[in-house]
Write a structure and sequence with these properties.
Blueprint (H helix, E strand, L loop, with lengths): L25 H11 L4 H8 L3 H8 L10 H8 L11 H12 L3 H8 L10 H13 L1
Amino acid sequence: MLAFCDVSLISAMPRQPKYPKELVTIADHLRKRRYDLKLSQLDVASIIGVTTDTITYWENGRSMPQISFKPAITRFLGYDPYSVDTSTLGGKVKQYRYMRGLSQKKLAKLLNVDPSMLNRGKKMSVILTLKIIRD
């Protein structure tokens, strides 16, 4: 007579072949978070507010997210993947735009200035600083 026993083998599920080893691009950040949460591209698309094709393009590096989607991407990831040097006024303005999903043109319209002024010298930086602080 043979003795039988219940044996359970437990191991971690193997990682997806495209699981990023390093987080270099926005595609890496999105794919890693999606795999970690065990979500489909359709799930992520509905969370961010885009199509499944858009998520596929972003993850495969075929296109980059438009600035208007950066706030939703940051919320989905739970952190800001966009490294911006905020030691300069230009960097602070860029971070402000990214966090609000504003293009330069939309920011200029909000500030009631010409878009080309966003890249000009000290006089414009003082105006921008005052207007951004006011908001």
